[in-house]
Amino acid sequence: MHNSGQTARHDAPCADDVRAQLQRIITSSEFPNIGRAAAFLTYIVQETLADRANRLKGFSIALEVFRRDERFTQEDPVVRIEAGRLRRSIERYYLVAGQADPVVIDIPKGGYVPRFRWSETTPRDEEIHDDLGTEEDLDQTAQPAPRMTRAKPLVAMLTALGGVCVMVAVIVAPLSWVDDTISKPVPGKPSVVIAPFANLGEGEEAKIYTEGLTEELLTTLPRFKEIKVFGRETSKGLTPDVDIAQVREQLGARYLLAGGVRVAGNRMRVSARLIDAADGAILWSQNYDNDLRSVDLFKVQTDVANRVASSVAQPYGVITQADAARPPPDDLGAYECTLDFYAYRTELSPERHAQVRSCLERAVSHFPGYATAWAMLSMVYLDEDRYRFNRTAGKSTPTERALQIARKATQIEPENTRALQALMSALFFNQDAVQAIEVGERALAMNPNDTELMGEFGTRLAVAGQWQRGADLLDRAITLNPGSGGFYRGNRALASYMLGDTADAVVEIRQSDMQKFPIFHAVAAIIYAEAGLKAEARREGETFVKMRPDFIPNIKEELSSRGMSGDDMARIVAGLRKAGLTVAGTDTRIAEQSQNPM
User: Fold this and answer.
1) 190, 192, 207, 550: which is deepest, by most CB within 10 A?
2) CB 461 within 8 A of CB 470
3) In angstroms, how far is the first alpha carbon of the chain from the final one?
4) Distances (CA, A) of 256 to 303, 318, 322
């Protein structure tokens, strides 16, 4: 199958090479094992190898892979949506796990026919390069495939992204999160997972309404104390037509809420249905026809949320009336800013930070009563300090500005979830941990299933010294939102270390996907050193120093700014030394000089 390196190769990989590569991809932990990504990729590869690539159209894929019937039309976006997800999953696989793989499989945009080629980074490619010329000479019409970069460019990219605190990032683990450690039933109360509503319309306006309705449900439903709602990242990691068996077996959810939005002119139709995951039975379904000029979208959201709650739990709580009394402004541009905020929190790049900050500043300028936008702007301002993103000069620091803005958001809407979360975070980073925890307690009591709030509050409690309670909250967040396991597990790993459970800390840190955050590498170095994994500890420590060379010389100030007590700081310093890093001074001196923020 592999020829001598002295012979130039003009041929593409043979069928056996491609099938072997397909197996590497679909069995990798870096490739999603939820949804039908593996079935989709397998189908189009096998059809192409069988010389039936001309059959790879949206209609045939919908019938063969997604089990649609003959009535399937292009109004159903499932194939387009899943093709986009599959392309991103393949790109991630080759960036993370498949850098040294001999064969590259990719799907050029504009169609569903896969392309097979030898990897640019294998010896085979280097040996034939001079004889064959560039890849463009081989295929003038091909779209660029994902480049197989080596470690040095990757580290450079991560370093450029920066970031100063693993405790507050919201990182989405790209769809590889369903495994035996987390795919267990949610205990206790009935659990609901919300699939992204399908966009059955056309144009940007339809997209915003569709994403907006899904987002409103993800914000509203967690306020019901009688049900458990899976978190934002987990829901958005699903497809609109997610298989009910996967909801039941991989997530352990009891109910699935799904639907679609169709926009045509000034008319909008929303369809929603609640499905029992045990047998696939539809408990209720409803269509809503609305005139967009009457701005009924948010009344629809409230009605759907109430119907879901009444269907799965009696008696059931009452949704806070603030949503109905203070709906988002009648402006798609302003509303889109809040949707973009969540995309930014997933990416956490300085470029996206600048865009979202500017958009939110315009939104609150035009709509000063929009509490959610003020809250998000507060968190974006906080990122100027904690991630060093696009810091702006002024009389007050970004952290002080964040606190001022968060207070304004809670004054406008005292029970707004994001406003309380923003106030809690801003207070904590302004060294007022006592009041921050008080706000966090109040927010969690009102929003017991909001996993973003739960994960952030759990982290704040842990770093403030309440390691066990913080760990318990993080465990709840992981159970209800495995899609954001990288963020939660990184913090959970630190909590396990501080609680003396080194074995669990190793398990958690290895499941965390936070390599672009410098503090992640410091925590990993400490944990590996404690576990006796010297090589891993040395590697992570060296990576940390390269990404943040200024951290160790200013370690007391860095840890103090994160609200860590003197005793815990001393343990971190001791751990860094055990990992082989040189930290000046003594642990005792750091503990004595540090002011306990509690």
Assistant:
1) 192
2) yes
3) 65
4) 17, 21, 26
Domain with 303, as residue range(s), is 191-326
- pLDDT by residue for the chain (598 residues), tens only, comes to 444 333 444 578 999 999 999 989 988 887 876 567 888 999 999 999 988 888 888 888 888 888 777 777 766 667 877 887 788 888 878 877 888 889 999 998 778 999 999 986 443 333 323 332 322 222 333 333 333 333 333 233 223 223 322 222 322 222 233 333 333 444 456 788 999 989 887 777 778 778 877 887 887 777 777 678 888 888 888 989 888 888 888 888 888 988 888 887 777 788 888 888 888 888 778 787 776 666 555 666 666 766 665 555 444 332 222 333 345 666 767 778 887 888 788 777 889 999 999 999 999 999 899 898 999 999 999 999 888 889 888 888 999 999 999 999 999 989 888 899 999 999 999 999 999 999 999 999 888 878 889 999 999 999 999 999 999 999 988 888 877 656 788 899 999 999 999 988 998 898 887 777 788 999 999 999 999 999 999 999 999 999 989 999 989 888 887 778 889 999 999 999 999 999 876 443 444 344 433 3
In a domain, residue 164? The reply is: no
Report residue 223: phi and psi, to 5°.
-75, -15
Q: Based on the fold, state whether residues 339 and 315 are members of the same structural domain.
A: no
Same domain, yes or no, for 493 and 553?
yes
| 113 and 46 in a common domain | yes
User: Which pTM does this prediction carry?
Assistant: 0.58
Do 409 and 452 share a structural domain?
yes
Cα four-point dihedral sign 569, 573, 574, 579: positive
Decide if 141 is inside a domain. Answer: yes
Indicate the length of the chain as a whole number.
598
